[in-house]
């Protein structure tokens, strides 16, 4: 998890549409500052990383096995262009060079060859904190001073909203602490339960809770309870609300499965 980036907002695992593949491309990290958007591809590789003749990157692990991917820098650049196009479709035209992209080799045991290491888009574990301090925190602090003097930064607020409601993975929180990550496709239940679920739209919902009641209670109080959090309410406000206390009391009394749809706009 990446937290505590001073003066910036961090969004994880965004999935932006890719019309060529008729699907979505995942972006590991998006860092939003007052001046830029940084698209970050994170690689937890160990061992040596070399560039092949065709431009692809080849990881040579300690045990001798290899893993090859297309040029990671170019691929990250492409994902950044997809994000820019997605933001434009949602009504914000970004200035030239507003989006930057980086490849973060997070593992200290990763040894990239010089041909990779000297690319300005590549960050090693030793360079990450310097990048945050020099590129992210300082310019955000300076821009925040200008924003305070000149009034509210409308574009920044629009970008904050767009990124916080961009598609991401569905997270299924299971009783006992387990988490399943993927695409929520369907819920099998009674017709009336299915109808209730269908009435909850992804476009204005970021949280759904489905409560499964044990079979001997089924005829008494039903099998499904659905609650949802509208996107117009911030998650922080929701967590501080009395509704959370109600959900907590319900969850203590019954076995349940919770689906967190993290700011999904589909």
TrEMBL record:
Domain NERD: 1-106
Domain of life: Eukaryota
InterPro entries: NERD
Transmembrane feature ranges: none
Pfam families documented for this protein: NERD
Protein name: NERD domain-containing protein
């Amino acid at each position: 998890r990446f937290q505590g980036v001073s003066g910036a907002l961090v969004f994880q695992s965004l999935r932006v549409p890719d019309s060529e593949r008729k699907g979505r491309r995942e972006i590991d990290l998006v860092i939003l500052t007052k001046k830029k958007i940084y698209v970050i591809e994170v690689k937890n590789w160990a061992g040596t990383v070399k560039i092949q003749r065709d431009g692809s990157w080849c990881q040579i692990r300690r045990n001798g096995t290899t893993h090859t991917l297309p040029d990671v820098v170019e691929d990250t650049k492409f994902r950044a262009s997809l994000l820019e196009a997605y933001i434009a479709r949602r009504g914000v035209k970004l200035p030239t060079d507003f989006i930057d992209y980086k490849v973060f080799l997070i593992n200290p045991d990763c040894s990239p060859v010089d041909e990779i290491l000297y690319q300005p888009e590549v960050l090693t574990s030793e360079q990450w904190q310097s990048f945050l301090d020099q590129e992210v925190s300082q310019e955000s602090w300076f821009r925040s001073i200008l924003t305070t003097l000149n009034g509210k930064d409308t574009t920044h607020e629009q970008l904050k909203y767009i990124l916080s409601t961009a598609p991401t993975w569905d997270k299924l929180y299971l009783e006992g602490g387990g988490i399943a990550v993927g695409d929520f496709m369907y819920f099998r239940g009674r017709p009336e339960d299915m109808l209730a679920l269908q009435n909850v739209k992804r476009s204005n919902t970021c949280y759904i809770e489905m409560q499964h009641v044990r079979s001997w209670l089924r005829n008494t109080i039903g099998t499904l309870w659905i609650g949802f959090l509208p996107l117009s309410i911030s998650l922080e406000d929701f967590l501080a609300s009395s509704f959370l206390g109600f959900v907590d009391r319900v969850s203590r009394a019954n076995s349940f499965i919770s689906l967190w749809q993290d700011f999904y706009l589909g």
